[in-house]
Specification:
By secondary structure, the chain is an alpha+beta fold. The chain has 21 helices and 14 strands. It folds into two domains: 187 residues, no CATH class; 395 residues, Cytochrome p450. The protein binds protoporphyrin IX containing FE. This is Cytochrome P450.
Length: 601
């Protein structure tokens, strides 16, 4: 994709630019100057190919190419030098103890990797216990050998320009393959995706009203106005008759039970889409399906591709059903978004010609367009929108689910929360200032994120240059690393760390409590090594301000309009898979519309 001279939306046929040569897959990703990344520039093989598998596949391709020209001897010598340098760096990296090594005579890491998927938390806990306060290595199923840093290193590494989130993501997903483009979008400092989040999705004053309006509509559709059990009409009549004639054996239940994760995904997709795509598209069923499914599908496709040896991935992805599905979703997203964008462009043109002021659209379709014009670059509207979907929808709905479950398990907090909501809603309206004044709600969400962040580690990075830590640990170029999140559950940091306490961060904010956090750190959007729920430092989540507002709007509507409780005997079991930590996908919530209730009533 050319970067000079704005050419509007990238034409369809130029979207999937797959390089057909056999050069190192890492060539598409590199640093331009410290802190400023760009694509399309060459990169040394050793930088990206940090696993033996990738290094040997790259060498294999080079040898084939040279052999064809009778230069086998020279290429083998070159290969030997590259391999030697590579092995040297691996040796240095492996000087750190490995917490989950292979058994004797076990030559493949497949058992260890499988075990990591189901027991990563225990593996990391073992490492933290065996090597207290010191970095150690673990073999991870997703990106291979990973150095785990204790939380005390979070501050030290947080703004290090030689530790790249970009390259970590490139390892995790296959960003250079068609269908995966959205995972590439946010990776570069000058990408319009990041710019739009930082510039527009942080100015929340105008956003509160449309979010709140959409919450009203979406709850009606998704949480429903149902004040009673969903019963087929005929059965209902039978029941009604029996009720009239007998006692209350069939007494109509006024609660309905829902899979919380599913309804929250649908709800958050609606709210987010209102801001990302505007009123016209935010209720488009096809789009809503894609915005929810694409993230899950990309994970599945990446998982499948990880099973394929490096050199074959560029070919295999064309036939892999999961990767085909991704390409179809990107195409469909384009079919939905491009006509709207084109219509707006024509309208702008007409207004310009007639000397009228442009229509004031307030959504990310418009912000991407403006930012692309400012930067003089072309872009794919569906790719940038799917980028937003991947970073925003599942993360936010996961936290909404966890928070609602925590509230349902601690029902004493419901009335104080409703009281707070009542105090900030003015004339039935929720404004940005009101969100800021929801201090108990802020504390409640932060507490739920503390106990169940999206990962058991945070700040996953790749070293783009050798890095030495303050304790003398040497991290060679290519080292993949993560910071342990254990301080979020540590008794030295938080009193009764395993207990959900909705008031915890409110007390800290007001300067009380025994916990060692400063009042500023107690805010939901603040990050620190003691709360890595949104990461920390240069790559801390830039969408957290938007997410915090969206969650407060969502919860204000839900809690004032619905009664909620856990179904009888229900147990909530959040899940850890590898380094990811998910809200219980089967958790159910009993919901009942509060008759006549409106926002803030
Ligand atoms: C409750 C919801 C969310 C949670 C828990 C969450 C969490 C995170 C975490 C843990 C990181 C990694 C930070 C690091 O490694 O230091 C991250 C990165 C990121 N998040 Fe979020 N996030 C949420 C919502 C959002 C939303 C709504 C957006 C966009 C609108 C967003 C955009 C991003 C982006 C673009 C990055 C990468 C930052 C970079 O490359 O520098 N997130 N998020």
């Amino acid at each position: 994709m050319g970067l000079s001279g704005f050419r509007g939306t990238t034409p369809r046929n130029s979207r999937a630019q797959v390089r057909e040569d056999h050069s190192c897959p890492g060539e598409l990703l590199t640093k331009q100057t410290p802190g400023q990344l760009r694509r399309d520039a060459p990169i040394s093989p050793a930088l990206m190919n940090s696993t033996i598998e990738q290094a040997s596949s790259w060498l294999g391709v080079q040898i084939d190419a040279f052999a064809g020209r009778n230069l086998l001897g020279a290429s083998v010598a070159t290969a030997a030098v590259v391999l030697f340098v590579y092995l040297l760096s691996v040796r240095k990296a492996t000087r750190l103890p490995l917490v989950n090594p292979n058994r004797t005579f076990e030559f493949s890491t497949s058992r260890v990797r499988k075990e990591w998927l189901t027991h990563a938390k225990q593996i990391i806990d073992t490492g933290l216990r065996r090597f207290p306060g010191r970095p150690f290595n673990m073999m991870a199923a997703d990106v291979g050998l990973t150095t785990v840093l204790p939380p005390r290193f979070a501050n030290e590494i947080r703004n290090n320009p030689d530790l790249s989130f970009v390259e970590f993501m490139a390892h995790l997903f296959f960003s250079n393959l068609p269908g995966f483009e959205p995972t590439r979008e946010g990776m570069f400092d000058n990408d319009i995706g990041i710019v739009v989040i930082q510039k527009y999705l942080t100015s929340l004053a105008r956003m509160t009203e449309p979010l709140s309006e959409e919450a009203e509509f979406a709850l009606h559709d998704i949480y429903t106005d149902n004040e009673g059990e969903k019963v087929p009409r005929v059965l209902f009549l039978v029941k009604y008759f029996i009720e009239l004639t007998t006692s209350d054996i069939f007494k109509k239940s006024d609660w309905h039970i829902e899979n919380l994760k599913n309804i929250n995904l649908a709800f958050v997709a609606r709210l987010s889409s209102r801001i990302f795509l505007g009123e016209e598209l935010c209720r488009n069923e096809e789009w809503l399906k894609i915005t929810v499914n694409y993230t899950v599908d990309i994970m599945r496709a990446a998982e499948q591709l990880r099973q394929v040896p490096g050199p074959f991935r560029r070919m295999v992805h064309w036939f892999l059903p999961e990767a085909k599905g991704l390409r179809a979703e990107v195409r469909q997203a384009g079919d939905i978004i491009r006509p709207v964008l084109e219509k707006r462009r024509r309208e702008k043109e007409r207004h310009r010609a007639q000397g009228k002021p442009p229509v004031d659209y307030y959504d990310a379709i418009e912000w991407f367009e403006e930012t692309a014009i400012e930067k003089g670059r072309s872009y794919d509207p569906e790719v940038v929108q799917l980028f937003l979907s991947t970073v925003a929808i599942h993360t936010t709905s996961d936290l909404l689910t966890v928070t609602l479950l925590d509230i349902a398990r601690n029902p004493d907090i419901i009335e104080p929360l409703r009281e707070e909501i009542r105090s900030v809603v003015k004339d039935g309206q929720l404004l940005k200032k009101g969100l800021g004044d929801m201090k108990l709600m802020d504390s409640v969400i932060k507490e739920s994120l503390r106990l169940k962040p999206i990962g058991i580690v945070s700040m996953r990075r790749v070293a783009t240059k050798p890095v030495s830590l303050s304790d003398g640990t040497y991290l060679p170029k290519g080292t993949k690393m993560a910071v342990s999140s254990y301080k979020m559950w540590d008794a030295e940091t938080y009193a009764l760390p395993d207990t959900w306490d909705g008031y915890r961060f409110l007390r800290m904010r007001e300067g009380g409590g025994h916990d060692v956090i400063t009042p500023h750190e107690a805010l939901l959007v603040s990050t620190s090594e003691r709360h890595l729920g949104f990461g920390h430092g240069k790559h801390a989540c830039p969408g957290r301000f938007f997410a915090a507002s969206e969650l407060k709007v969502a919860l204000a509507h839900i809690l004032t309009k619905y009664d909620i409780k856990l179904p009888e005997g229900a147990e909530v079991k959040h899940r850890v898979t590898g380094a990811s930590f998910y809200a219980d996908p089967f958790a159910q919530l009993a919901i009942r519309r509060r008759p006549g209730a409106t926002l803030g009533s």
